[in-house]
Amino acid sequence: MKVEPGKDGNVKVSWTNPQVSGEKTVTVKSDTGSWRYAAKPYSQTVKVAADKSKVTIANAPVDSSRYVVNVDNAGGTTATATGAFADAAIEPYPACSVIWNGDNVTLARPETQDWRYLYMTEKWIGENGKAAAGEPAGC
């Protein structure tokens, strides 16, 4: 079995048809065993005709979460593959998640689960740290 998760949310699944004939059931789902992604589970199941050996499943996550794919042959065996969905989620860090207390700053954990680095650039925005006219004041 071959699984190709795309950044467009399409997951292409292909396989070699077994000797047993019959309709296939293909399931793509989130690996909810991962605590990081269990809050937003994804699952899609499609039926595929006996003579077909590939399918594209749409609307999959693009957040690099883990997946489990099963191809179940009617009356035969089930093939399973695991991996990670494509990573195309780009979410800016929200300004309202930054809390200033004097010279100290507290950063809330981002909603996006796969953050590895957070770079912060300090920018002087006006007298005494107040936003200059026309500048956004935050969230």
Short summary:
With 139 residues, the protein is mainly β. It is built from no helices and nine strands. It is rod-shaped.
Write structural notes for this entry.
- This protein has about 140 residues and is an all-beta fold.
- Helices cover about 0% and strands about 35% of the residues.
- It has no helices and nine strands.
- A four-stranded antiparallel β-sheet has the order 4-3-6-7, with no helix packed on it.
- Strand 1 (about 1-5) and strand 2 (about 10-15) form a beta hairpin.
- The radius of gyration is 23 Å and the shape is rod-shaped.
- The mean pLDDT is about 80.
- Summarize the main sheet: 4 strands, antiparallel
Percent of residues in helices comes to under 10%
Unreliable stretches covering 5 or more consecutive residues: none
Work out the helix count: 0
Structural class: mainly beta
Q: What order do the helices and strands follow?
A: EEEEEEEEE
- Backbone shape: rod-shaped
Strand order of the largest sheet: 4-3-6-7
State which percent range the strand residues make up.
25-35%
Number of strand elements: 9
Distance between the amino and carboxyl termini = 47 Å
Q: What is the averaged pLDDT score?
A: 81
Give me the Rg, rounded. Answer: 23 Å
List keywords for this structure.
four-stranded antiparallel beta sheet, 139 residues, mainly beta, three-stranded antiparallel beta sheet, single chain, rod-shaped
Present the secondary structure layout.
Blueprint: E1 2-5, E2 11-14, E3 24-30, E4 43-48, E5 54-57, E6 66-73, E7 78-84, E8 98-101, E9 104-107
Antiparallel strand pairs: 1-2, 2-5, 3-4, 3-6, 6-7, 8-9
